[in-house]
């Protein structure tokens, strides 16, 4: 394996820990907590299932952004390897971690002036930036440099599109990710909302339809407007503890568009704290997000 630079990300990327280890991607693990306990996002599926079962029983959690000192502590041992570091961060529109990272990198460069650290704002959530990490890991194996890969990420991150759907917006409303009024409307009208990320990475409700089948049909229509070369790419489907439903969703999209294959991932506790159980989402390359 060509390791001409160190590749890292955070646990919100919703890649499994095993997949990260296989591709030599180093994740920093975020914390989630409530009044009773503090936990770490392990990036292990079995732990995610336990987490969602707690939420279904009424427990709510919060996350905290990674602070500057934690990021310095994460990166400093890597610098001893005398290799460039490329870090793909959760989008700045949904987390303050990116801004803290910029400060941490400045501190490290003052102490290690010869260091090369590329700290990138993915403008994405969940496996959206997990895809970027996997692509960079692939390019690294082919001998690409950290600088070349950082340039590719900046040029292509807005081409990753996603559509989410769920039968409830209550968790997103409680976490402040969407307006409470949207969640109330959905609850009383049995609406299945469809969400997307804009160019900056903010989560938007872009449509509301009645029923899960209608939601999938609407997502297919939306994907048709954005997709580029589906037969040459992998479809990524992430879900928050609805594996059977997610598989039907993924197979439906694969059959319709002809994606060459599908990778399914669990939405871990970092993102799951805000979205709750019951969300499924598709990620793919296409035209730049609006």
Mind explaining what this structure looks like?
The protein folds into 2 domains: 6-157, Rossmann fold; 159-285, Hypothetical Protein Tm841, Chain: A,domain 3. Helix content is 42%, strand content 23%. It has 11 helices and 13 strands. Helix 4 (97-111) links the parallel strand 6 (85-89) and strand 7 (117-121). It is globular. The model has no long low-confidence stretch (mean pLDDT 92).
SSE inventory with pairings:
Blueprint: E1 6-10, H1 17-22, E2 25-28, E3 31-33, E4 38-40, H2 45-56, E5 62-63, H3 68-79, E6 85-89, H4 97-111, E7 117-121, H5 127-141, H6 146-156, E8 160-165, H7 170-174, H8 180-189, E9 191-197, E10 203-210, H9 212-226, E11 234-239, H10 243-257, E12 261-266, H11 269-275, E13 280-285
Parallel strand pairs: 1-2, 1-6, 6-7, 11-12
Antiparallel strand pairs: 3-4, 3-5, 8-9, 8-13, 9-10, 11-13
Helix pairs in contact: 3-4, 5-6
In a nutshell, what does this entry contain?
The chain contains eleven helices and 13 strands. The chain is α/β, with parallel strands linked by helices. α3 crosses α4 (about 95-110) and α5 packs antiparallel against α6 (about 145-155).
């Amino acid at each position: 394996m060509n390791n001409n630079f160190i590749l890292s990300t955070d646990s919100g990327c919703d890649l499994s820990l095993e997949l990260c280890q296989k591709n030599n991607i180093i994740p920093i693990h975020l914390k989630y907590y409530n009044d009773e306990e503090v936990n770490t996002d392990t990036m292990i599926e079995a732990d995610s299932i336990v987490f969602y079962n707690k939420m279904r029983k009424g427990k709510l959690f919060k996350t905290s952004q990674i602070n500057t000192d934690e990021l310095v502590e994460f990166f400093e041992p890597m610098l001893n390897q005398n290799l460039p570091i490329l870090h793909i961060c959760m989008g700045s529109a949904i987390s303050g971690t990116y801004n803290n990272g910029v400060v941490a990198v400045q501190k490290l460069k003052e102490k290690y002036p010869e260091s090369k650290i590329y700290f990138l704002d993915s403008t994405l959530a969940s496996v959206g930036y997990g895809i970027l990490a996997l692509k960079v890991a692939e390019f690294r194996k082919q001998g690409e440099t950290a600088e070349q890969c950082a340039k590719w990420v900046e040029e292509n991150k807005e081409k990753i599109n996603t559509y989410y759907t769920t039968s409830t917006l209550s968790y997103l409303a409680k976490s402040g990710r969407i307006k409470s009024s949207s969640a109330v409307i959905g609850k009383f009208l049995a609406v299945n909302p469809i969400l997307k990320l804009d160019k900056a990475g903010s989560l938007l409700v872009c449509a509301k339809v009645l029923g899960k089948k209608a939601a999938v049909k609407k997502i297919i229509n939306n994907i048709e407007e954005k997709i580029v070369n589906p037969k040459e790419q992998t479809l990524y489907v992430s879900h928050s503890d609805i594996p059977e439903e997610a598989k039907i969703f993924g197979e439906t999209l694969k059959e319709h568009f002809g994606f060459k294959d599908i990778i399914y991932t669990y939405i871990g506790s970092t993102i799951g704290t805000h979205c709750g159980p019951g969300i499924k989402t598709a990620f793919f390359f296409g035209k730049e997000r609006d």
